[in-house]
Fold this protein.
Amino acid sequence: MVTSQPAVCESNPENEWCPPGHGDLYAALVGSGSLDALLEQGIKYMFVSNSDNLGATLDLAILTHFAKSGAPFMMECCVRTENDKKGGHLAVRATDGQLILRESAMCAADDEAAFQDISKHRFFNTNNLWVRLDSLKETLDKNGGFIPLPMIKNAKTVDPKDDSSQKVVQLETAMGAAIECFSGSTAITVPRTRFAPVKKCDDLILLRSDAYIITDDFRALLNPALSKAPVVSLDSKQYKLVNALEDATQDGVPSLLKCTRLTIKGPVRMSKKCKFVGDVSIVNGSGEIKVVPAGEHKDTTIDLTNAPGLGPLKPVSVKTSPFEGQKPGTSGLRKKTKVVMKEHYLNNFVQATFDALKETGVNVSEGTLVVGGDGRYFNPEAIQMIIQMGVANGVKRFWVGQDGLLSTPAVSAIIRERGPVWQKAFGAFILTASHNPGGPEEDFGIKYNCENGGPAPEKLTDMIYVNTTTIKSYKICADFPKVDISSQGSTTVTSADGSASATVEIIPSTQNHVELLKTIFDFSSIKNLLDRDDFTMVYDSMHGVNGPYAKAVFIDVFGQDGSVCMNANPTDDFNGGHADPNLTYAKELVAIMGLDRTGARIDMTGKAIPSFGAAADGDGDRNMILGTQFFVTPSDSLAIIAAYADEAIPFFKEQGGLKGVARSMPTSGAVDLVAADKNFDLFETPTGWKYFGNLMDSKVIYGGKDYTPFICGEESFGTGSNHVREKDGIWAVLAWLSILAYKNQDATKPLVTVEEIVREHWAKYGRNYYCRWDFEGVASEGANAMMDKMRADASANTGRQVGSYKIAISDDFTYVDPVDGSVSKKQGIRFLMEDGSRVIFRLSGTAGSGATVRMYIEQYQPDQDKLDLPVSEALKELTQVALELCDIKTFCGTETPTVIT
Ligand code: VG1
Ligand code: CO
């Protein structure tokens, strides 16, 4: 029964929308004002076609013909063949001789045979249409603003994917049907080359095969060696979606040059080594993917039903449904381990990533996928799962860190440096939640890094997230054997039919990274420093992944005593600690260096204090630098490394000197002063390392200005350079040791200390007093409301006087990437005071659950007499102002930070 009422679809109201069909083009031209605008510009002719028709190019000969004809409307038609008999055809209306279009939906059931008679109705519409815009306007005006197109009635179900849902009538119009609305309209027969629509995978495989060529002016043409395109008919159930065809042809598209007909039934995989000649039919009734043997197949039916399958390489599709909240944050996806261990949870994210890679054109079958992590709980299981899913998604080679261990900077180095060209890594999964605690009750994390070695850019992480919201199934080779990741070596697994294989290589965790570091620093002068009697150091790896790297460098290369490396054996829960190198969490080291959690000196009478102390976070990309009873803020550390780079570090010296520096927005402006002094290009980016990569790749990838050699850093204990595309903890430690070695070249003189170097720097540039207050684990609603309020009040706050500070600007930081123009909004609420002081608020994007508010406070002090104040005192008033500005007490119920750094 037709109710003539709009359809209702409770399960998904989006299905209630009735797509109008491309006949809507004319209404859209009028409604959007485009028609008038085009006419005003003096444009007379319009050529339109379906976007899937790769043959629809703007052919000047046809345009000339159309212009000369004087007709208001012209349709390009092709001669109908067997393949086209079900589609609409051109006709002459008997009553008045008007050209009209007849669609199958307009044909009475008993006239079907005549409709499909290609000798009677010889032409079909290609939907390549030429329209005189002035005539269009006239016709529209005459008809009260629309074109009276015939309605097409389609019988559908309200949910197109569910045949059992409510039956509906979908009304649409077709743009070609307008031929009947213009008197004097005409048609022209064009060669098939003007009609190359890609509607089904049948068309796509043909187009991608050697049956078609791409001309120099990018037209897809039937290969001149063929008089007729092969007739392809793929199993419509198996190859409905492009993904399925791509899986089936992951090893290349077979040759169809000598093929007349190709019919495929059942799930198969082909390769470019297959050549189909004449009429070939492939059948696989087994339900399991079977591989068509390489070689020529001529006029034959290949029955693969009982052929050996892929065995351990057999992918299966597992049904799943989306999990909420799989949006990667500042550095990947971080969640409670328990959440990640839920069935399908990690599978969904990994499949969403593989799908996004395919969408962006990454060929995962070429090169290598790197897999490793910080050694936290559930890493080993996740690694095996990623291998099994990788194989199912077409990955042929893996590099896995021994014992699953790879630090974040080492992964970046491996992607960039390891292997011959044909093995070069295309990307990596890094299993880390970095500085977040680990273990079954704590956090797990996963992130994807790209071919340049850097974290996935926002464009990719957004795509991954969208995929996680629609995922229905994932692919996995459940029978792929578990790989022993505890010892180095290579395992190749071959499919049962011998057609394919995948190789998993367990690689040394530290080798590539340590080799790279040796090319950057002057190791012999660092060794001289370390060997001095008056120099001692300790490096705390906090039970994270950095331990093996610290040992490889300091014990194996520099020959230092084992006591230099503290907490250097990775454990899966970081020994119950919080592997975050700051004054609060690196308690043990901080006490050894003679400080308390506020950075104040403690009584160390009778105890020897090392000259140098450093700590790393869980995944080895962060660093904390300490001198004897002295804490170096990360912002100062960045500025000082930049100031000494050219003198103390060969990597910079030998490449003509440092060119560019960058800091994240909340990081203090100490490095800005060095940049201004030394004429470096300076950039201020949003929080997170992914934004630095484009600046480092500005020339090599984007062909723009070169900013390398390049140094960048964040206030959150991250520092690095363009030697990799991640922050690099051990790099920063070696950079500091290089500066110390440079300042202490004369071994007969007393040691110039870390503290002296920092004070000398302040004396020259002034001091940026800086601190960050973290409010961890507050309720998300309150935190969000607080941020919204400050955002809403931004313009009202601008110009306001608070205490002795006047707010010059209050805004929400927006970053426009100077290299690729991409825009990142809502990157932190800023209060920029008239005297240059700053207060900034952000919500953390790395929290595994709940919310963390970060409050950043900075005040510059050039006065030589005021360089030695305790930070809390120097920032006392500004801190009060900051608390007032955000009113965190009201929104989050607390004013006491969990961590101050
Ligand atoms: C934090 C830091 C940020 C850093 C990120 C990843 O992010 O503030 O500077 O890049 O962690 O570091 P957020 O969004 O929580 O403020 V790591 O060493 O945890 O990968
Ligand atoms: Co980290």
